[in-house]
Amino acid sequence: MAFFILRRVGVMLLTSLCLTFIVFFLTNLEPNLEKLAKTQGNARMTDAEVTSWLDRNGYAQPMVLRYGEWLGVLPGWTREAEDGTVTGRCIHGTVTAETAPRFCGILQLDFGQSTVFREEVSSIIGTRLGLTGILMFWVMVVMVPSALIIGVLAGMREGSRTDRALSTFSIATTATPEYVSGVIFITVFASSAVGLKWFKGSAASAMDGVTFENFTLPVLTMALYGMGYIARMTRASMAEVMTAQYIRTARLKGVSFPNIVVKHALRNALIAPFTVIMLQFPWLLTGVVIVETLFNYKGFGWTLVQAASNNDIELLLSCSVVAVFVVLVTQLISDIGYVYLNPRIRMA
User: Fold this and answer.
1) Which of 344, 312, 342, 253 is nearest to 27 (CA)?
2) Rounded Cα gap, residues 270 and 291, in angstroms
3) H helices of 157-264, where?
4) How far apart are CA 228 and CA 221, in angstroms?
5) Which of 102, 114, 110, 135 is nearest to 36 (CA)?
6) Is the Cβ–Cβ distance between 155 and 238 less than 8 Å?
7) Dihedrals phi, psi of 143, to nearest 5 degrees
8) Rounded-to-integer distance, Cα 184 and Cα 54, Å
9) Chain centroid offset of residue 227 CA
10) Cβ-proximal residues to 284 (8 Å cutoff; 6+ apart), any chain
11) I need a surface site. Which of 50, 53, 193, 265 has the fewest CB within 10 A?
12) Which of 208, 260, 202, 273 is nearest to 234 (CA)?
């Protein structure tokens, strides 16, 4: 098991390096850097002025060197102006040239400064991730138990009327994107034009305090979309287990149907859905982009949209790092949990 975990961690590190370099390369293309220079300087800057601004701010170096500085494995750049003012990657905020460290990158937990919000990226990410974490928690609380119940009930008696009804519901929820169901919920339950103004269409007030009124619609919008996928996987796994030989043997022995489901079938049927449930975390982290923008909930997804639309390179790179980290960690937990839950893989 230790060798298995070490091998997975090694693959995670290699994957994260490749993914972060791709994102770094795409965000630091010449058009993006030119747009950044004109946004921070003057929209009417000439090409020579753009080149001068990029050189003064460390963007004129080779891509590999800047990637190494961003990671924190190479010393941060420094520039001394004609008036003696020293600037550099590690000099920002309250950090002066005298107190600046030599290395300041992701490995040192220095994410830089946002060019749009004018704040430390680490504080922005921490605040927005906390808000998104609350949303993800309530989505999982609603989505996972509901999906497992639907899947188990549908798979207990394959082909029955209950199975067909629940399967149709699962397919319908999965086939409906979040931006469609979100608009429908807002129109029906939050619009004064329809007359059912039960909830608030905007979840902005939830950032100060979560209530049933301001948080129900965004939670349901995300939960319904993921619920169908988990339910269908659970249903398929449950139906397969119910046709196994040991289930038939238990029936022939006279074991009651509820005991067969609870004591014999349920545990084995939940092995495959466990992996699917763990993979919902990275989906939720990226899926909140639509929901948070739609309901004006300023969490991680909303921040990612703002960083991309405003060409905030440091913030966009940090959001990408967080997303990559969450995906890789959840996959690692999923692999380890699957090995523990499935004795056949553990013995192999």
Assistant:
1) 312
2) 29
3) 161-174, 178-185, 212-242, 245-252, 257-259
4) 12
5) 114
6) yes
7) -75, -50
8) 46
9) 17
10) 136, 139, 140, 222, 226
11) 193
12) 273
Please determine, for residue 69, whether its predicted confidence score (pLDDT) is greater than 80. yes
Tokens, residue 160: 């029955």
Q: If we measure between CA atoms, which residue out of 253, 300, 252, 314 comes closest to residue 110?
A: 314
The string of pLDDT tens digits covering residues 103-124 is 888 888 888 888 888 888 888 9
Q: Quick one: which of 182, 200, 173, 199 has its CA closest to 293? A: 182
pTM of the model as a whole: 0.80
What residue ranges do the domains of the chain occupy? 122-347
Specify the amino acid at residue 223.
A
The whole-angstrom separation of Cα 289 and Cα 304 is 7
Q: Given pLDDT bands bounded at 50, 70 and 90, which one contains residue 347?
A: very low
Domain 122-347, CATH 3.40.50.300 — does that match?
A: no
Which residues 6+ apart lie within 8 Å of 235 measured at CB?
Answer: 150, 151, 152, 154, 155, 163, 166, 167, 170
Strand, helix or coil for residue 301: helix
What is the rounded CA–CA span in Å between residue 67 and residue 61? 10
Q: How confident is the model at residue 142, as a pLDDT? A: 92
